[in-house]
Amino acid sequence: MAGIRKTARRATLYGRLSAFVVFSAFPFYWMVIATFKRDHDLYAPANNPFVFNEPPTLDHLRTLLFDTHFLTYLGNTFRVGLAVSAITLLLAVPAAYSLARWAKRWGEALGIGIFLTYLVPSTILFLPLSRFTAGWGLQNSLWSLILVYPTFTVPFCTWLLMGFFKAIPRDIEEQAMVDGLSRLGALVRVVLPLSISGLLTVVVFSFTLSMHEFIYALTFISDSAAKTVSIGVPTELVRGDVFQWGPLMAGALIASIPVAVVYTFFLDRFVSGFTMGAVK
Amino acid sequence: MTGQDDGGGIRDRAGTLAVLMIAPAIAYIVAMIGVPLLLAINYSLSDATTGDPVHHYAGLVNYRSALADPVFRLALKNTFVFALVSQSIVIVLSRVLASALSMPFRGKWAVRFLIMLPWTAPIALGAIGWLWMYDSIYSPFDWLYRRAGLLGKPGDPFGPMTNIYWLGRPTLAMASVVIVHVWRLLPLATVIQLAGLSAIPGEILEAAEIDGARGWRKAAWITIPLTLPIIGIAFLFGIIFTFTDMTIVYILTRGGPVNATQVLATWTFFKGIEGGDLAQGAAISLFMVPVLAGIAALLLRMARRAEVT
Amino acid sequence: MARVEVRGLSKRFGGFQALDEVGLTAREGEFLVLLGPSGCGKTTLLRLIAGIEEPSRGEVLIDGRVVNDVPPRLRNVAMVFQSYALYPHMTVRENIGFPLKMHHIPKAAAAGKVEEAAGMFGIGGLLDRRPRELSGGERQRVALARAVVRNPSVFLLDEPLSNLDAKLRVSAREELRRFQRRIGVTTIYVTHDQVEAMGLGDRIVVMNRGSIRQVGEPREIYERPADTFVAGFIGSPPMNLVEQGDRLVGFRPERFLPAALTPKADAVAWSFDVTWVEDLGAERLVYGTLGGKASEGRVVSRIPASVPIAIEAGRAYPFSVDRVDLRWFDRATGLRTEGGAP
Questions:
Q1: pLDDT, tens digit, for every residue of B53-70?
Q2: What value of ipTM does the predicted structure carry?
Q3: Which residues 195-234 of chain A have a CB within 8 Å of chain B?
Q4: Share above pLDDT 90 across residues of chain C, in percent, rounded to a whole number
Q5: What is the per-residue pLDDT for C231?
Q6: Could you tell me if A38 and A111 lie in one domain?
Q7: Does residue B167 belong to any structural domain of this protein?
Q8: Number of domains in chain A
């Protein structure tokens, strides 16, 4: 009796999980199919769309890699991500440390204030910022993105790092000061080595969010050699109004999976930022 | 002792350091978020265009003309509908999914990875996948319906045409957008709720089981009340992300068919960037501010309450 | 070795007065214990001496030099925190060597000093471990080794034994005392544990609510408490305090014994209404109230197991205290006053 009930519970659990997995992952399965399907098979409404009715092909991948700017987009994305991570670290680490350690009453308030600026959406800021980048002559330059992307990485990462720094016992810094370091020295020589995982989280977060960004890139960049993956794939792999679905899906897939893998590893740390201390 | 180091330097003065270290971040935030926000307000009260950004004060004329525009009113309505409908669905589904994921089972990492994909992969690329799934001719849903005899012949419940045209009919297009919003935000809401569930002390759950609460009764009386703040936070963030999102609508429908799925964000883009009417665009985007301010206030209150306990 | 002095030292945290006009001198080579309940300001005082906190008012002097503006690293003090504050990302060797490295001691010389300090505390075999692989007692030794390694002129110890289990604490106490005697460095030691304070200190500083209540040798603090706070804080159970007119009379529980045990001539006798008896093996604690002319103060007597007199709860017995063992306090100020019974 108990055994049957247990089996039934397991079956319900697996049933639920499978349904959610199908819902979440099906678009990516759909990308895999399109990536390797021959055009003849792909564009045949009568064919079963879920399987390969003809042998798979690498043609679309070849087109994507050699006949489009896809690799340039990847390179651009990488450069932007790297630069944004660096800027974010430079701005957020000192700010977070200052708020976590030295600011007394106003520290928490200022920290929350900074976090709230994360809620100012790019869909309001992109109009005025497009005037900024135009004024600085940065249209179609990756620099426009590098300068603007920290608007969403710095507030969130400052908030995240505040949590990390607060978790490091004060004793250790004070000990370092007694042992011969200045306050600044204690931060650099003792606190930062102890917060490696926090710093890594910031880098991953800045990188993935830069890669995800769409609106600024769409607004600032129209030269296809300066596009990032996020806008290059949806806008450049369309000839006129004809979508090249094979290469398009291949591009979406290749760009999505690695960032998704890395992001998944760090997801719990980001969530700790979102829960704003409501979960200890 | 090191003779020349008299310790009077800046690297020992906490007060000075505290200000110096936070200054760059504050300066950046003011320059790149604060100033643009003020600039947007300024634009909205002027007659600026991208061709002629030198602006003259024009009062509330942009807000008035926005409100008089039926497309704007539709966009405003759609923005609310998309956010509220999708997030109501997300809250329910994420609750179910989170409690399933909190059970022990094999291959959890893989399952988690697949379920998180919509959030962890770039949304523009995910949306492109959906665009292909909603294709007017090759949609796999249409194929399934035809196979099941629901579509394609006279008298079939979904109509005699060979395809449904997901993004071609106003109501269906709206539903399609909502589905993608649900798909996108479900993972985030789920992990936030998981964090809430894992924070409930095991002893409370054991005590509840000893008291005879299981299944939905345990959920209704123990886990849901205990994680209510977290559920609220997940909901509010979900609202913010859908309310301000432009990517999904832009890629799926560009606001079509005939503006039926237009939202504030896309309408801002089309007016302000493609139409070049900075002033009008800024006014439209600023209609998002009251809702965002309200949500920010709610989040603040929740953060305060979390601090007290 | 150094003399540490503080003058008129105050520290406010927001609206909380953590230290109020404190003046104190630790003599060269002395083992000075700061004792008091939590929140009394003893740790704040230690941190001000270390330079981790800045005073709101007043001066800190080390060897006659005002060091208010000298950062901790240049005060040549060593500190051991309650948590030991070992650097978790470094090995024991790196932990102990860290202060030397920060003071640019040449590597070869530093290595020798690290070995020597580790040997002093018997942790030579642990040098390549990380702090998380050590037991509580081992961590404490590492922290001490790190503190002595660069020959500081002052040791500051903040409850270094409180994270050890009771048994280990006793042996660690003994070790610490022997070690301090040998190297003779001025040591300021913070604790809330009066047994530690009595056992370790050359002198004890009793603190409460941000000020010093009494400074003196352990025996003096015990025998002649300066006020009712010290009387009630030191000793376990603490001194009995009984109202008598406008004064309080105090006597230690071990001096309050059955009348048969004290010489009649010089003793003050009471009738002791016993309410409760605890037999702790080595001694009996007898609780009750004083009848007769004294008001209704609750008092306790501590009778060694060697006294065979039977005592039961619910009955009254004649008890007495030798007159020389009575202490008198002013009821209004709480301060001890000289003189005998009225």
A1: 677 787 788 899 888 899
A2: 0.89
A3: 208, 211-212, 214-215, 218-219, 229-231, 233-234
A4: 54
A5: 93
A6: no
A7: yes
A8: 2
Single-letter residue type at A19:
A
CATH number at residue A269: 1.10.3720.10
Q: Which residues of A touch C (CB under 8 A)?
A: 104-105, 169, 171-172, 174-183, 185, 190, 193-194
Confidence at residue B3, expressed as pLDDT on a 0 to 100 scale:
40
Phi, psi values for residue A198, rounded to 5°? -65, -45
What is the residue range of A138's domain? 62-279
Pairing of strands C267-279, C316-322: antiparallel
Evaluate whether residue B50 is within a structural domain.
Answer: no
Residue B308 has pLDDT above 50, yes or no: no
Q: Are residues A75 and A33 in the same domain?
A: no
Q: Looking at beta carbons, which residues of chain C come within 8 Å of A104?
A: 14
Cα distance between residue B231 and residue B226, in whole Å: 10
Query: And the tokens for C79?
Result: 């500190």
Residues of C with Cβ-Cβ distance to A181 under 8 angstroms: 73, 102
Q: Which stretches of chain A drop beneath a pLDDT of 70?
A: 1-2, 103-105, 239-240, 275-280
Instruction: Give the pLDDT confidence of A258-268 residue by residue, as tens digits.
Output: 888 888 888 87
Closest CA of chain A from B164, distance in Å: 13
CA distance A167 to A169: 6
The reply to whether residue B7 touches residue C76, judged by beta carbons under 8 angstroms, is no
Chain A residues in contact with B26 (beta carbon < 8 A): 95, 114
Q: Give the span between the Cα atoms of A191 and A166, in whole angstroms.
A: 11
Mapping DSSP to helix (H, G, I), strand (E, B) and coil, where does residue A51 land?
coil
Instruction: Tell me: do A196 and A125 sit in the same domain.
Output: yes
